[in-house]
Amino acid sequence: MGRDGRGVKAASESSIEISFMYKGTRCRERIALKPTAANLKRAENHRAAILHAIATNSFDYSLTFPNSSNALKFATHKGDVQLLEVYLEKWLTGQKAHLKSSTHNGYRKIVDGQLVPWFGKLTVSAIGKKDVKEKLKDVGASNKTLANIQSILRKAMEDAVEDELIESNPFAGWCYSKKEMPKERDAIDPFTKEEQAVILQNLTGQGRNLIQFAFWTGMRTSELVALEWNDIDFVRGVVVVSRAMTQQSKEAEGTKTDAGNREVKLLAGALEALQAQRQHTWLTGNEVFQNPQTMARWAGDQPIRKTLWTWALKRGGVRYRYPYQTRHTYASMMLSAGEHPMWVARQMGHADWTMIARVYGKWMPDADKLAGSRAETVFGTPKIAQH
Q1: How confident is the model at residue 195, as a pLDDT?
Q2: CATH class for domain 84-162?
C-alpha cells in the first residue's frame, strides 16, 4: 500500500504522511486518515493541490497545517500561528491597567463566554468576517449584545495590528447585525406620584432616604452607592457627581461618560432626604447611604433590590419595576412640569438634550398655543408693496 514514490505513504494505522518540497526544505506532514487505498488516493490529490499552490505562490502553510511545527518556521506573521485564545488572554491581561474593573469584567465574560469557545482554535490571522457572521446569525441575542461582542473582538484585532501580528483588522468599519422585531413595549416605565408615595410609606430610615433621594435627583444606582458627604455642597445646593460603583468594582470609579461628571441641583425632596440621612452617616464623613443590615456602603444595585426595593413594592402593592426606573421617573417629572430639556439633560449627565427628547418626548408638554406670536410682535410681518 506504500506510495512513497508519489509523496504519500502510510505513517501508522490511523495516519498518512505527505511529503513535499517547500522553500528548499523537505516537509513531511501527517493527516488523520486510515491508510486505505481510497484514502491514499485522497492524500495524493491533497498533495497535488499543495504543489499547485506552491507553484502559484498561493500556499499558506499555517492554514493548511495549522498544528504543524513547520507553520512557525514558514510564517510570514506571528499571527499565522498564534491561536486566538492565547492572544485574547494576553490582550485581556494587558487591558486591565486601562479599564475600569466593571468594564474589564464585562470584557472577560465575553472573551471566556463567547469569543474563545467560538473562535479560540483559529489563528489570529485566520479569523474573518465569515466566521463571525456564521456564528452570530444563530445567536439568540439583541443587536446591542452582538455589537458588544464584536466591539471587543474588533479592539483586540486592532491591537494585533499594532503588535505586528497581522497586517490589517478584518473587522474595521464592519459590524454584523440582524433584523429585529420592534419591541412590544417601552422600557421606560416611570412611577406615578401616587406610587412614589406608597413606596416611601413602606420604607423607613436609611432605606426611605435613599429611595427618596433617587426619585428627586435622577442619579444612577451606581452613582448613589458611590456618593460621599464631601460631594454634597449645602451652601450652593448641589451634589457633585463624579464617581460610580458597581458589584464588579471594588472601589469608586469614574462616571459612565465624561458628561456624567456633573452637578445636580438639590430639589426640596432630595434635600429633605439628605437632612434625614445626616443622623445616620454624617459623622463618618464617608458614604452618604449605607445598607442598614451591614452598616456599610451598599455593594451595588443587587443588594438594594433584594433587601429593600422588592419588599417595599410588594408590601405596597405597587407593580414591580427595577430600581433604575427612579431615574426615568425623575426625568418624566421634570419634563412633565415644563422644565427645559437641556437643563434636564445636564442634571442627568447627558451630553445634549437630543436623547432626552427622543427617549422622554411623550412627557414633554405640547407647544404653547401662542408660540411664535412673540416673534411676530418683535419682528413684524413685512408688508407687500402696492403698485
Answers
A1: 95
A2: mainly alpha
- Give the residue range(s) of CATH 1.10.443.10 domains in the chain: 193-363
Q: Does the reported pTM lie above 0.70?
A: no
Count of CA atoms in the C-beta half-sphere (13 A) of 262: 24
How far does CA 162 lie from the centroid of its chain? 23
Q: In terms of Cα–Cα distance, which of 348, 339, 324, 224 is closest to 274?
A: 224
Topology annotation, domain 193-363: hpI Integrase; Chain A (1.10.443)
The grid coordinates of residue 274 equal 439628605
pLDDT (0 to 100) of residue 166: 87
pLDDT digits (tens, 9 = 90+) for 196-243: 999 999 999 999 999 999 999 999 998 999 999 999 999 999 999 988
For residue 151, the number of C-alpha atoms closer than 13 Å in the C-beta half-sphere is: 9
Q: Which helix (H) or strand (E) is 27 found in, with range?
A: strand 25-31
The torsion angle over the Cα atoms of residues 101, 107, 109 and 110, rounded to 10 degrees, is: 170
Judge contact between 232 and 239, C-beta under 8 A.
Answer: yes
Is 125 in contact with 62 (CB distance < 8 Å)?
Answer: yes
Pairwise CA distance, residues 369 & 163, whole Å: 62
Can you name the residues that pair with 290 across neighbouring β-strands?
297
The predicted model gives 112-136 an average pLDDT of 92
pLDDT of residue 364: 66
Query: Looking at beta carbons, which pairs linking 113-119 to residues 24 or more positions away fall under 8 Å?
Result: 114/149, 115/84, 115/88, 115/149, 115/152, 115/153, 116/84, 116/85, 116/88, 119/84, 119/85, 119/153
Least-confidence region, from 22-31, 40-49, 284-293, 378-387: 378-387
Q: 379: which DSSP letter?
A: H
Q: Give per-residue pLDDT as tens, 336-363.
A: 888 888 999 999 988 777 778 777 777 7
What ranges in the chain are assigned the alpha helix state H? 37-55, 61-64, 69-74, 84-95, 101-110, 116-119, 129-136, 143-162, 193-201, 205-217, 221-226, 268-281, 301-304, 310-316, 325-336, 341-348, 354-360, 373-379
